[in-house]
Amino acid sequence: MTTTTQPTTPTTGPAQRSSDPILSASDTLTVIAWHDPTIEQASGAMPTDSDDALVWYTPSVGTIGMAMAHRFARHATTGPSCWTVEDIARTFGIGPSPARVARSLDRLERFGIVRRTGPTVAVRLWLAPLTYRQRCGLPGYLAAAYDAR
């Protein structure tokens, strides 16, 4: 793909939390692709919608967040997709809770996997190799497998 979609939030400085305004179940979020050539070309980078991303990132990001990132990236590869907050909550097994959706998105944003601007969520299509800290947080068997790949 040669088209580059950049998130509309500035990429310099601290990441902004997008919890304001508070989400409601009927709000619609638009998920778009976030192409980052630096990450995409990095040795050891992995597609966000891959099994590798689920295996290596879940221990640090969490199951719900990584399931969201995986699914959002899969959809974003073919173009923007729209999701109601309630659909997101029910899809990922967290009930009809807008607050839990917001917390999961905030966590993904803290890890630099998504960037939110209003109702738009830009999801990275590729993830960087694990940081030293993330690698150290893996269970022993996963750390050994990660090092051997």
Features of the shown structure:
alpha+beta, 149 residues, two-stranded antiparallel sheet, four-stranded mixed sheet, 42% helix, single chain, disordered N terminus, 16% strand, 6 strands, 7 helices
Can you offer a commentary on this structure?
By secondary structure, the protein is an alpha+beta fold. The chain has one domain. Helix content is 42%, strand content 16%. It contains 7 helices and 6 strands; from the N terminus they run βαβααβααβββαα. The strands form 2 sheets. The protein has a 4-stranded mixed sheet. The protein has a two-stranded antiparallel ribbon with strand order 2-6. Helix 2 runs antiparallel to helix 3 and helix 3 packs across helix 5 (98-110). The relative contact order is 0.24.
Note the main sheet. Answer: 4 strands, mixed
The sequence of SSEs as H and E is EHEHHEHHEEEHH
Outline: globular
Q: Determine the fraction of residues in helical runs and give it as a percent range.
A: 40-55%
| Average pLDDT score | 88
